[in-house]
Amino acid sequence: MVNNSKIKLMTKLAIFEKRHRFDLQLGKYFKGDYIKFNLIKTVLCVTGGYILCLLLVGFYNIEYFIKEAITLDYKKYGIKILGIYAILLLIFCMISMITCNEVFVTSRKRLNKYYRKLKQLGEMYTDAENENKNIKDETANE
Length: 142
Prior knowledge:
Elements lengths: L3 H16 L1 H6 L4 H30 L1 H6 L6 H68 L1
Helix pairs in contact: 1-5, 3-5
């Protein structure tokens, strides 16, 4: 016999699995691990982007750097470059932490609803198995 409530619940679970694959993948992580992993990605991307920007500015001003190579204050430029890098890195890491935290929390809320429905489906199956077992026992006793 077809149980409509089981079918509806299984359909809802299938739709969730199709729409929220990222949530199911994210469910494998602890919150701290997910944030740390994304912070590492952020640091690498910011560093790479900053180096590329420095190279572009350097190539654009290469004539100036060659003419003034002896008189340039390298310490001043180095401190300025590292200061800007540190500020950019701090800003992007804060944005990344806030964003990843929000993504993780909302994903966890959706996953909790999913797991409750999954547990409910499991209970439906155990109830159905118990009913079948009781029916078999009653027919065996007759």
